[in-house]
Amino acid sequence: MSLRHILAITRKEFNHILRDRSTLILVVFTPLAMLLLMAYALTVELQHIPIAVLDYDRSATSRDFVQRIVSGNDLDLYAQVGSIAEIESLLIHGKVKAALVIDPNFSRDLLAMRGMPMQVIIDGTEPESGGFAVEHIASRAQEFANMALSTQIQMMGFSADALNPLDLRIRTWYNPGLKPRNDLIPGLISMVLGMPALSVALALAHEREHGTMEQLMATPIGRGELLVGKMIPYIVAGLVNVIILPLLAMSWFNVPFNGSFPLFFALSALFMFAVLSMGIIIGVFMKTQAAAMGVSFLMIFFPGFFLTGIFFPIVSMPEIMRLESLGMPGTHYATITRGIFLPGVGMEILWPYAIMLIILGFSFTGIAALFFRKKLG
Amino acid sequence: MIKRILALVKKEFIHLRNDWWLPAFMLFGGVLELMAVGWATARPIQNLPMMVLDHDRSAASRSLVISLENSETLKLEAMVDDFQTIEDALERGQISAAIIIPPNYAEEMADSNGKPTLSMILNGAESVPATAALRAAEGVIASLNEKLIIKRLRLSPDEFSGFAPRLRVWFNEALSEALYTTPAEMGLMLEFTTLLFAALAFSREKELGTLEQLLVMPFSSLEIIIGKAIPVIIIAMTDFTLMLAMVHFVFKVPIRGSLPLLFILAFGYLLVELGKGMVLSVISKTQMQAFLLVLLFGMTDFMFTGYAAPVESMPQALQFIANIVPAHHWLEILRGILLKGAGMDVLWPHVAALAILGTIIMTFSLRFVRKALD
After folding, report:
1. Is A8 part of a structural domain of the chain?
2. Is residue A126 domain-resident?
3. A60, exposed or middle or buried, with CB in 10 Å at 0-12, 13-18, 19+?
4. Is B83 found in the same domain as B12?
5. Number of domains, chain A
6. Total domain count for chain B?
7. What ipTM did this prediction achieve?
8. Using one digit for the tens of pLDDT, what is the confidence trace for B78-108?
9. C-alpha–C-alpha distance, residues A274 and A284, integer Å
10. Tell me, what DSSP letter sits at residue B338?
11. Is B196 near chain A, with CB under 8 Å?
12. pLDDT of A286-343, one tens digit each?
């Protein structure tokens, strides 16, 4: 390997990207734009879920209860309805995500301490909103029962909180209030930073498609040098994002960054290496850019979104899929970004993930170089 | 005219034959990948590791731990003896939650005026599992509380129905995750495949310099566009059919509504996406640009399908944007027909929206592409 050779290839690749301003803008800013988009759209806290209410009781108590449920930002009363059929129509039209049905003997049972007979119907096609509504109603029901029955219970000789004897005290570490934004944004950063890998796959396939690969091979540049040289401009473009994205997360979305920035930078560089090697493998195998696109979408982008544990915890996946996710650099890097952003941990905890990134990076480049020789030799 | 279009379609298919494995890979690889992803994510969140620090070591505290484990959301990683272990495990991200049982837990539980307290520490570094762990613990506590109330206030256990609502789930009675995750994942895959092939239509010819050749031939620009569109539509419809069959047979996603209606609307939706892809195709100079634009636009659309966050909870401005995103309406239609058995009487607002958007996008893209070609 000679540095001069690598730099020559790098310069050529830079010229390629720079000559066409729009490619440059796309390569550098696609991750940024995607992060902005996803941060806005995917990290919303559930609120204003529309519900319908069917009150068979029609008592002051039940009206009071409904009022309590829809006060605040969590649930919005879409309509008071008169029959189950109306609920069905609202659910099927998607106008409401849940419906509360209050039984006729609601207030009587409540005051007799027999319970609060009611039912919540949720739309199983969007259980996130429905589940949220159920939880909200259940917790308000508990409060309401405590309040409505407090005098009665005290007269019976019990303390006012006798209806809620067992107390669960929650403390949330690293992310008070469990704001999804604070942990999803670091996770999303790991996802969008993988995008230059797609570009490098295309860049290599580009040479093959235009037949310029043979010309490159006729120069005294070695194959390894060629691959490394091709990678460098995209690593640089990625590292620009490694600096911009956390700044954006901190200043715009108020995500805390508790760890060390140099460490974040160094580990991000490792990740860039590993994920670009994946792109290189695809670029080596594919003869056309169209093919490189399809394969890198299916092998890098799609699983990178669903299988790296950003939205769905890896411990809950089946055994084999857990193995696949371990083979993806994004999984390890997502753990690293979250660790550095929120708990602010250092190398003493992150070293296994760093080692995994190194192993993946070198084995991918190794495979790429091996097949590169065979394909062209 | 038809003859000339057919000639163009033939040309496109010759391209595809030389690169035959690409559509094959996108179709079958796509279905397999969707199956893998669906398999991995279409399940309740479970096995979240937790640690318990039991200062009480009584029968009551052990039974609490067992009920927590029985919720299946949580899995006991270890019973620990000191808080330091929990702190380390949280920092390493090894556990999602920790429960601390105080020394007087059993005593307070038995005392008719006792106030047992439990502490739970959540690992906020990953909010999705933390929220699931919290919900599971709250469920266990609520049922324990109910038992305590019955015992302490001497209520009749048969009569007492608790202070929580009964739950009924419609359209997805067993609350199977596959029913709502796979349609969204399928929507994403379908949209990307369509956009990708559509975006390649002109950007490839442009980059390789063959577009000029095509233009000097006796084809009108409309014929070129139609000729380019037909293979994409064939690929996209095949993709849709394969994926629909897969989610239906593998993930047991029901088709409660009308299947012909679903196919007609799928065709309409794919035309809209095709128009979008063609515009991306003519505005990009190289295939790489086209690809990056496809990713950007495809992701934007995916945000509004309700996969990770419901549209109603989004800020007002985003809710407005959702209405002009075809994929948003398509997902409502797809879910409506598959899961709710909805017909045109229910779906017409989304169909109308799709038709309006489609007309605008198609008119624009035809004009735009023709202008770019002429």
Report:
1. yes
2. yes
3. exposed
4. no
5. 2
6. 2
7. 0.85
8. 999 999 999 999 988 899 999 999 999 999 8
9. 15
10. I
11. yes
12. 888 888 888 888 888 888 888 888 888 888 888 888 888 888 999 999 999 999 999 8
